[in-house]
From TrEMBL:
Organism: Streptobacillus felis
Lineage, uppermost ranks: Bacteria, Fusobacteriati, Fusobacteriota, Fusobacteriia, Fusobacteriales
Annotated Basic and acidic residues bias: 48-72
Official protein name in the record: Uncharacterized protein
Lineage: superkingdom: Bacteria
Residue segments, region Disordered: 42-79
């Protein structure tokens, strides 16, 4: 039972189609890899920002503490 030429060409993927599928797979894995890298960079940036905010808050707290101590010293001097 022989296949007609049309049936045969429909049954088997052409080399072009196979190459295209392989290229698509490679592209997909590249996209996944790049997406992971972008996410890592975003996480790193967020962590750095959080640390920066924490440092700013700590410095502000120290400055406020220093002001408070100066004020307390003045009050003590006046008493």
């Amino acid at each position: 039972d022989k296949l007609s030429k049309t049936e045969a060409s429909n049954t088997y993927a052409t080399k072009g189609e196979v190459d295209e599928k392989i290229a698509t797979k490679v592209d997909e894995s590249k996209v996944t890899e790049l997406t992971e890298k972008v996410n890592t960079v975003k996480e790193t940036a967020n962590t750095a920002r959080d640390k920066s905010v924490a440092n700013e808050n700590a410095l502000r707290t120290k400055a406020e503490q220093s002001e408070l101590e100066k004020t307390n010293a003045k009050v003590t001097a006046l008493e």
